[in-house]
Amino acid sequence: MSRDRQTPTSSSRTTSSYGVEVVDQWRTIPSEHISELPSTTPTPADTDPLTPIREQVAETIVLRATRDAEIVDGTKVGVITTLPYASGEEFLRTVAATLEHATLLRQRSYLFILALPTRGTSPLLICGSSEELSERAGILVKSKFLNRVQQYELRHGRWGALIRDLCSTSYDEAALWDAVRKAARQPMDPLRPPPGSRSIAQILDDARARLQRITPQRAYDELQDPMVEWPVVLVDIRPEAQRREYGSVAGALIVERNVLEWRFDPRCAYRLPIANRYDLRVIIFCQESYTSSLAAASLHDLGLLNATDMIGGYAAWKEAGLPDEVEVSSTAPPTDGRISAPMNP
């Protein structure tokens, strides 16, 4: 993938937003929906005194959006959100027209999503250098927003839609960015890894690079140390079949992998009582310490930066001759090591 700039890990860093400071100067332009509004620039007789302001703001938005856009397989892509409440779909078309006529884009492939987040139903426009690009992005948007898309239409090379509660959560903006990036990709060679993808070996290495992994003996010592500065909990994430076949450590908290994040996110309503602080020392183990490394890195993403995993997993614990039962002196009330957390968050 070629880029003018490095692709950000968070889409919000490159999303252009129209400033709130000019909101009070504008009035709402009523309309039923996108397809019922005129698709051409207003004639002088239709132009109101605020049109030059809208055009100037649109030019500023487009300049910033093209500057901050990404390059995906030779196509410049971006997501533009404007006023977070009603200012009329007409402004979206003003931005779209400005974008389509921008000198920066005339000689290259481009694809942008323009969104106007409002309470209730919000308009969205997709404009690209070809109708095929716009339609491809529209199909992806429909699949990502499912029953929230109330109306949609492909007209004059633009894909327009009305979407309920647009940008009401962080999911929406990330989904829009994913749609333009994937729509801009060239056909995939089924035998070659796509740009930006990683093998599981690379993913595992990256996860372990974030951890301070410990041996089973070190894990045991931490569990028995009453002087540690934070609570310590030993967590077995193996499925029940593995615990039944190989054995378990009584005193370890059993939280199977599929619910781990929900149980240890301090912000989550389904968290365990012990997961009420971010300095919690969570020592995770699986059978051989592959899945546990990925799980511990996931807890780092939640903010639990003391989380780690046990090198070698339960197999290494047994090989080291450590006991099948531990008395955990530094954790919350102990479990018997046999009761799994509820499966459905």
Give short descriptive properties of this protein.
single chain, 345 residues, alpha/beta, seven-stranded mixed sheet, four-stranded parallel sheet, 11 helices, 11 strands, 33% helix, elongated, disordered N terminus, disordered C terminus
Notes on the protein architecture:
The chain has 345 residues and is α/β, with parallel strands linked by helices. Helix 4 packs antiparallel against helix 5. The N terminus and C terminus are likely disordered. The protein has eleven helices and eleven strands. The strands form two sheets. Strands 1, 2, 3, 4, 5, 6 and 7 form a seven-stranded mixed β-sheet that branches. A hairpin with a 5-residue loop joins strand 4 and strand 5.
Work out the strand percent.
15-25%
Helix content: 25-40%
Alpha-carbon distance between the two ends: 38 Å
Number of extended strands: 11
Radius of gyration: 26 Å
What gross morphology would you assign?
elongated
What's the order of the H and E elements? EHEEHHEEHEEHHHEHEHEHEH
Largest sheet: 7 strands, mixed
Q: Which stretches are poorly predicted, pLDDT < 50 over at least 5 residues?
A: 1-45, 329-343
Count of helical stretches: 11
Structural class: alpha/beta
Give the averaged pLDDT, no decimals.
81
Summarize the structure.
With 345 residues, the protein is an alpha/beta fold. The chain is built from 11 helices and 11 strands.
